[in-house]
């Protein structure tokens, strides 16, 4: 017997909102014979749990108009973590010795994705490097190193205070969250138009939003995907992204 959906055109399943996630370059993977383009499984699964359809986006050498045309077919964008942005992207003359995994193509593509998503009003969630990309894309700068191992936020879970009334607060449902962090850089100068929506106890910017933006957008310096499978507050960020993507169709 055939399933009703196969014969009854009135029985339909709404497609999942399509969420673009710029891929990261990997020199090697255990399952493939070649270098790969990847995204963290925890990140992809968090989008899937939220009801979204995660789709890796190939980083290509294109101008912003072409990048915007590619994004226009998606319902939302997630800018993930990754290596450091090249310091010259935010006006630094020299690179600190701790700067790592810089890739000029990745930088150029991510910056164009950030600007295009905001210009198009696509729902955008930016995570860790993603937050830094948005800040730099809009004219802000980064502190290249937070001061060595005793001050950086690598392998650290710490409380973060969330600004009342922000999109971030609505997404996580709380004024304070425990954030899983992995970064040695942070926002130095916040880009014009961006508002700080979260801070760590040491003053590090942990959240950014754009109140004048065309669409839903929030950015966090931590990695919500690390604990989203067991922490509803962290999963709430992905839920909010997918909800905004669905509503914006």
UniProtKB/TrEMBL annotation:
Pfam families, A to Z: Peptidase_C26 (PF07722)
Signal peptide: none
InterPro entries: Class_I_gatase-like (IPR029062), Peptidase_C26 (IPR011697), PuuD-like (IPR044668)
Keywords recorded for this protein, A-Z: Glutamine amidotransferase
Keyword Disulfide bond attached: no
SUPFAM superfamilies to which the protein is assigned, alphabetical: Class I glutamine amidotransferase-like
Protein's UniProt name: Glutamine amidotransferase
């Amino acid at each position: 017997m055939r399933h009703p959906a196969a014969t009854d055109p009135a029985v339909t399943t709404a497609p999942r909102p399509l969420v673009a996630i710029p891929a990261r370059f990997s020199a090697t993977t255990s399952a493939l014979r070649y270098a790969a383009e990847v995204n963290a499984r925890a990140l992809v699964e968090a989008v899937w749990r939220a009801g979204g359809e995660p789709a890796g986006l190939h980083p290509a050498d294109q101008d912003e108009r072409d990048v915007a045309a590619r994004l226009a077919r998606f319902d939302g964008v997630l800018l993930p973590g990754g290596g450091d942005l090249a310091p010259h992207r935010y006006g630094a003359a020299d690179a600190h010795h701790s700067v790592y995994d810089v890739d000029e193509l990745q930088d150029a593509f991510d910056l164009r994705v950030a600007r295009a998503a905001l210009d198009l009003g696509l729902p955008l969630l930016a995570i860790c490097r993603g937050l830094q990309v948005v800040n730099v894309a809009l004219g802000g700068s980064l502190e290249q190193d937070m001061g060595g191992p005793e001050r950086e936020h690598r392998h650290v879970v710490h409380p973060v205070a969330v600004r009342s009334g922000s999109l971030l607060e609505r997404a996580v449902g709380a004024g304070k969250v425990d954030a899983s962090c992995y970064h040695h850089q942070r926002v130095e100068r916040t880009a014009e138009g961006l508002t700080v929506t979260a801070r760590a106890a040491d003053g590090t910017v942990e959240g950014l939003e754009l109140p004048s933006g065309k669409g839903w957008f929030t950015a966090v310096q931590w990695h919500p995907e690390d604990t989203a499978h067991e922490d509803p507050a962290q999963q709430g960020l992905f839920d909010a992204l997918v909800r905004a993507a669905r509503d914006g169709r």
